[in-house]
Amino acid sequence: MLTHGTVLLSVAAVACGLPSTVPLQLSEGFWRGDFTVGVQNFSVSQENSSERANAKEDLQLTIDTGSFAILVKEGLYKPGPATQQTNISEFIQFNGASEDGIAPASETIFYVRDDVQFADVTVHDFLAGNITFGDDLPGDGVAGFSPPASGNEDLSSGQGLIETICAQGDLTPCQFGLALGKDRQGSFIFGEIDASKISGDVTVLPTTKTDSWTVRNATAADAPNIVIDGTPFSPILATFDSGTPNIIGSLQQVRDILTLVDYNITEQTNEDHITVALGTYDCARTPARVGFSFPPSTAVHYIDLAANELNRTADGRICTANILGTSTVDAPQWSIGQTWFQGRYVQHDLDNNTISFADLA
Ligand SMILES: *[C@@H]1O[C@H](CO)[C@@H](O)[C@H](O)[C@H]1NC(C)=O
Ligand SMILES: *[C@@H]1O[C@H](CO)[C@@H](O)[C@H](O)[C@H]1NC(C)=O
Ligand SMILES: *[C@@H]1O[C@H](CO)[C@@H](O)[C@H](O)[C@H]1NC(C)=O
Ligand SMILES: *[C@@H]1O[C@H](CO)[C@@H](O)[C@H](O)[C@H]1NC(C)=O
Ligand SMILES: *[C@@H]1O[C@H](CO)[C@@H](O)[C@H](O)[C@H]1NC(C)=O
Ligand SMILES: *[C@@H]1O[C@H](CO)[C@@H](O)[C@H](O)[C@H]1NC(C)=O
Ligand SMILES: *[C@@H]1O[C@H](CO)[C@@H](O)[C@H](O)[C@H]1NC(C)=O
Ligand SMILES: *[C@@H]1O[C@H](CO)[C@@H](O)[C@H](O)[C@H]1NC(C)=O
């Protein structure tokens, strides 16, 4: 999920028995995986696996390459023996926190240090966020897979989950991929790209070092483009964000695109003064196709047609476009959300600071 916040105060090379592939499911617009936050003290019942299984509190968290923190939804995070309180707190606003892509969410978070487990690998003393007040979030919370945002002094001393797994020697080379199908089933894959799962060309893009999900363009000419129905609309600053349901840009650029394709524009402003602009169209018309191109290639990588329609009213007549404008984003920034990922394999290489993608086989 795209955040803007302020701090108040090769598979064979994968080490240590990490499973190479972890199943993910699309639920209510978000891809979820199982995590354990605050591992229970098993020493009493270590021999009793059924008791141990019951003691584990699995949380279904959104796999979010657009934020960095593990955040547990209000009321769900009980302290365990490994929990250490910190005095770090944060206020975060998410864009696109609901299935129809519209709802922003504001959250007040107190961080603790704790054990976090994902796919049988445990990290200790990890900064995990206890949401103490805020809007509803999908599932049990969010699992961020990006590095901490730069310029966030209290938090940048910490590390993102995947960086921590790499730093403790559990993942070499430091790479992972998301293979998200068109059938609501996906995989989180540790290590190098699994070549058996892809077809066609692999596009490799350099990313910024501090935030390996944002494409780095050396000049304006090599910036990615957002493409509408075959015509490049504008060069953009692109961030890949598996935890956002749709494609999110600035209010003005989204209004311009919606006007161009003759959609109706609906605007909403919430109590936090965040304005969103969404497009609606008659479901009977041919929808506009939204895609991206990455110079020097001119190939356009469109959102899969089935995912292109983000929502449809109960009577089946009014469809919602897959792009959303928000006042929390400044042009030319765009966030490429999970609907674009469907049918693709998106790979993050944290050693070389690249993001790559290819079509799923
Ligand atoms: C394991 O724990 C379960 C649940 O408390 C109990 O029913 C079972 O008898 C225990 N098994 C052993 C081998 O202690
Ligand atoms: C999270 O916050 C709630 C409410 O303040 C508190 O009851 C709970 O113990 C906290 N959990 C942790 C792990 O600190
Ligand atoms: C776990 O439980 C055992 C037995 O009750 C206790 O001796 C040990 O100190 C506990 N460990 C932690 C980290 O709390
Ligand atoms: C937070 O804790 C750190 C050390 O644990 C301390 O140096 C710092 O002064 C504390 N900050 C506040 C605002 O209490
Ligand atoms: C990258 O592309 C964006 C979008 O065109 C542009 O605003 C920015 O200046 C470019 N960066 C550099 C370093 O040229
Ligand atoms: C678009 O707006 C017009 C004029 O307000 C309205 O008649 C029409 O039903 C709207 N269509 C959709 C799909 O929202
Ligand atoms: C999305 O669809 C649901 C019904 O399926 C409807 O209640 C909701 O208002 C729709 N959202 C938008 C933005 O049209
Ligand atoms: C990527 O990084 C690894 C490890 O740091 C290095 O061995 C490899 O040569 C790099 N690959 C590319 C294509 O830069």
From TrEMBL:
It holds the Pfam family Asp. It comes from the Eukaryota. Keywords: Signal. GO terms for biological process: proteolysis. Residues 46-358 form the Peptidase A1 domain. One of its GO terms (molecular function) is aspartic-type endopeptidase activity. Residues 1-17 form the signal peptide. Belongs to the peptidase A1 family. This is Peptidase A1 domain-containing protein. It comes from Trametes pubescens (White-rot fungus).
